[in-house]
Structures are given as C-alpha cells and as structure tokens.
Amino acid sequence: MPPEFSRDQIAAIAALARLELNPDEGDLFARQLGEILAYAEQVQRADTTGVPPTASVVTRHASDRADELRPSLDRDVALESAPDPAMDAGFFRVPKVI
Amino acid sequence: MPSSRMTTDGETTVRSVRDDVRSRARSASDVCRDALARIEALDPQLHAFNTVVAERALARAGEIDRHFDQWRDRPLVGVPVALKDNMCTRGVRTTASSRMLEHYVPPYDATVVERLEAAGAVIVGKTNCDEFSMGSSNENSAFGPVHNPWALDRIPGGTSGGSAATVAARLTPLALGSDTGGSIRQPASLCGVVGLKPTYGRVSRYGLIAFASSLDQIGPIARTVDDAALALGVLAGPDPRDATSAPEAVPDYTAALTGDARGARIGVPRALLEQGVDAEVSRAIAAALDTLAARGATLVDVQLPHAGYAIPVYYLVATAEASSNLARYDGVRYGFRAAPGTQHSAPGTAASTQHAALGTMYAQTRERGFGPEVKRRIMLGTYVLSAGYYDAYYLKAQQVRTLILRDYEQAFTGPDAVDAIAMPTSPMPAFKLGERVNDPLQMYLIDVFTVSANLTGLPAVSVPCGFTDTGLPIGLQLTGRRFDEAALLRLADAYQRETEWWKPAPPIVKG
C-alpha cells in the first residue's frame, strides 16, 4: 500500500474523479492522502475472516408501491436549473463531445 | 436588542412559542418578526445563515394568522425554524455552502420541509454549514465559517454549525441539521444545545443533498429534549419517495418523556474513554453519569472492542460514497459550470488526458466548484473504490463496519443488555477558528465518539452537561436502541430535568 502518492498517481486518481487539480493541490493531496491512508491502514489489523460486509443498515424496507404513473418534475422546470438549457428543443446543451 | 421577550428561558423553547401562538398570546406574525429581528441583530457576528427568507416567512406567518382555525392544532404552529442549507426548498436558494450550488434554486421541497410546513412551522432561513457537510468545524463553508455564540473566535462545530448556533443564540427555537458522522450532535454539543440524530431511516432523506447515503440522517437541534421530541414527531415516518425510509410506526415521543430514569441501564465504554479526552470534558461526563445514577439509572461497563476502528472505517466508507454521490456535479443539469477556455490546464493534470471539450468542462467545473476538503474526499473515495484497492480498503472497511455493528448489538441485547450507551459527544470543547484547518487527519479524529452511531444506524442524542472553566459548553452523548428514540429521549429528558446546563444564554444574547 502506498504511504505516499506520486504526482502521476494523483493525476490518475484526479482523472478518474474528473477533477482538474492545479500542481500545488496535487502535491498537497499526495502528502495528505498518504497520511490519511497510512492511518486508515489499521483496519487491516481487524480479523474479518468470514465477516460479511455491511453496505447498508436498513433492516426493513417499506413495502413495494403499485407500479403506476405519477406526476414528476415538469421538463421545462427541470431545464430552467441548467447552466445552458436548450428550452425549445428540450435538451441540456453541452460543449462539443467529439 | 429587539422587542422580543427573551429574558427568561421558557419563552424561547419550541413548546412555549407554539403554546403562545396557539393560545393567541402572540400572533405567528409577531413571533416571526421577532425572530427576524434577532437574526438581523446578531447574525452579522455569527454568520449562521446563508440565506434569510424574511418575506416568505412573514407571508407564511400571516397566512397562519389569517386562517388560524385551520392551523391552531398543528404541532408546530407559528414556530420559527432554520434549515441547514443542504435541504431543498422550492424557490429558495439551496447551496450546501458550496460554490457549486451557490445560485441553485431547487424546483421541489424536501420531505422534511413539507412536513414542517404542514405542522405550522415557519421557515426563516437556510443555515451555514461545511461544504456538502464535509468537516468538523464549519470552516469548510465556501461562504466563511460560523462563529460559536459562546466565544466568537471559536468554531461552532460542524457540519450543522449554523443550525446549532442559531438555536444557541436564541435566534430560532428549532433548527434542522443533518448528521453523517456527528454533524448534528457535535455542533449541538459545542454550542450547548440538544441535537438528535434519529435512527437511520426514521426521517426521510428525500430532498437532502446527499453526502454518504448509507450514513446521512436528518434530525432536530433545539434547546430541550422535549422540543427535539416534539420536532421528531413531525419529521419521522415512512416516505414513498425515500426507499430507505423505515415503515416502523411513529410513537408519541413527547408522551414518552416521563422524567423517570429508574431501572434504566446505561453502558459506559470505559476503555474507550481512557485516552484522548480533555480533562474538563471527562469530569463533566463523570458528573453527568453520577446524576443519572442518582435518578435511579444503573451504570454498567460495556465493551466495544472494535470502536477504535470507527474513524478509519468511517472515512473509508463515507469518502467512497461521497465520490459516487458527488459525481452528479458535472455542470450539465444544474449548478455551476466553468466557462470554456478561461483556464489553461497545466501538464500532468486530469484535463490534459481528456481531449474533448466536454471532458474539460467537467474537470474545470469540478475543480472550481468544489472546495479543498470536498476534493480531498472525492480523491480519497475514488482511490478506495478503484480497481486493485477496492478489496483492501472499501470492502475491508465494510467488514469492520459489521464488527462495530455487532459490538453495539451485543451491548443492546441479552441478559446484560443496556438501554443506552453514554460517552462524550466530542473529546474536546470548541477550539479556535483556524487552529486545525491545515491538518485534515487531526480534524477527522474529533469525530471519534460520533461516527459509530452513523455506521450502525443507531439513534444518538447530545445533551448539554457542563461548561469548561472558560465557559465553553460540553455535551453528553447517549446512544439508544434502533427505532427506540422514545426510550433514548426519555433518559436524556430525565437528565435535563435534573440539570440546568441548558438554561444559560451565551453572552452575545445579553449583549
């Protein structure tokens, strides 16, 4: 396990997270994430042989609802929140993809 | 000070305000105007509010006064409420204290907002918090920190710091917070008020801006346990719009507050409390346990052998969930979008590997929209979920989460079962603003006593239990059985009836 991250590793994680870090931030995070993970490393000491993971503590789910159409957010209302809506077409507009 | 009657304590509780309005001793409009005047007078020093909705609140209060017969019997009629700024309010800016959502106006209400308003409450504003509820001191707000009403140069706690400060400073008798790792209880403790994190699923999360979905829960902050019980009765119950909301019936929480602690068994995890707790905090907790014992409770030792893993488990699980939840902020559907071509990407950074304009827009939007702690957690969460590290970190943390859950289940069941587990809410009183901002790991360690209630989903409450020599509040945390907030609140209320720690107002109120 890496106690400290290289600049390349930080860049790779940032790419996965869709974050454009500036170089100072990259260096800072390389050190801080290393420290945090070194601390978190102690979980390895716990004996978890045969222990199932807990992803959720929900004990009882609400019963299923009927599969019926119900009103939802109006399209124009939803589009109004967008940084660059194409109201007439009913789309979210984004920069060039290809 | 404004004209409001705030010289004695009873007049600033949820119950007393509600009863005054119900009996027409005061109109909802007068109550609302007084609250707004207090906010105007004190908030410049506290910075507890991101947004105050004076007109909307007065319109709402006026509506209650005009159609009083329809509103009279509602449980929170005329009560001014402040909402943490991560709960969606239709037509009212909801920012999560982030640049990413600085101008976001939700097109819908959170379920808790609907329930509060149906109960006759009057929302007066949205409170400052750590950005996306990530932090322990409120210093991660993009709009600047909240100041502790007891000492303006100190933190109010986080992340619901604005909500705790508004109640402590008597601006509103009730506020809602959300709690992912202690974010209701810790600021309540550091500000000398009551904060309740209900059982996971007890209160709908629909309309709550998500941080870590398996841990997040909404709850009340108030001056008394009775007020928290009154509010929980309004907030609790299943919601078809939140699949994790629980179908369990909602009892009358205020009826459970008998003042009787006799026969209650309170577990004390002494081994856990032996190190790293401030001496004044330790003394206050010991005295609080003596008080409960004098009221007829039995103190017993409990073992929570995996409690020491709670912080690492929490920060692995919560950051993993956060990295996934916050992927939605991409500048497409709502919130901030970085303008194209305004910033050149440095070599070796993420954007240089993405040639399409869309990819650059995503990366720049997120770089400029998120603050440092949010980015740090997204990075950490992305790493622990990535191929090659998932089993070692995320899966392992989830397995240890099971062990922590089993510790608590064991304490709460069997012939030696306890009714509640007691410990400090925070290992230390409020520290000075700026004192810990440069060391994220030291900041994380502050959550040592609060994160387990989130990992296990159990209900937990913080109650004022003392002051340091310099006048900073200290809080006692009680953790209860799943979906048994009634028993938990009964015990907390019995303690509060016997003590006066909740009564003094901070100096800023008298000033």
Distance between the terminal alpha carbons of chain B, to the nearest Å? 8 Å
What is the second-level CATH architecture of one domain in chain A?
Orthogonal Bundle
Provide the low-confidence segments of chain A as ranges: none
Average of pLDDT of chain A: 91
Q: Identify the CATH class of one domain in chain A.
A: Mainly Alpha
Summarize the helix and strand pattern of chain B as letters: HHEHHEHEHEHEEHEHHEHHHHEHHEEHH
- What overall geometry of chain B do the principal axes of the alpha carbons give? globular
Strand order of the largest sheet of chain B: 1-3-2-4-6-5-10-11-9-7-8
What would your notes on this structure say?
The complex is a heterodimer of chains A (98) and B (511). Chain A starts with 6 loop residues before the first helix and ends in a 6-residue tail after the last strand. A two-stranded antiparallel ribbon of chain A has the order 1-2. The model of chain A has no long low-confidence stretch (mean pLDDT 91). Chain A has a domain at 7-45: Orthogonal Bundle (Histone, subunit A), CATH 1.10.20. Chain A has helices spanning 7-16, 23-40, 75-80, and strands at 85-86, 91-92. Chain A has 98 residues and is mainly alpha-helical. Chain B is an alpha/beta fold and 511 residues long. An eleven-stranded mixed sheet of chain B has the order 1-3-2-4-6-5-10-11-9-7-8, with helices on both faces. In chain B, a hairpin with a 5-residue loop joins strand 10 (460-467) and strand 11 (473-480). In chain B, helix 2 packs antiparallel against helix 3, helix 6 (161-168) packs parallel to helix 7 and helix 8 packs antiparallel against helix 17. The longest helix of chain B is centred in the last third of the chain and has 23 residues, at 390-412. Chains A and B meet through helix 1, helix 2 and helix 3 of A and helix 11, helix 12, helix 13, helix 14 and helix 15 of B.
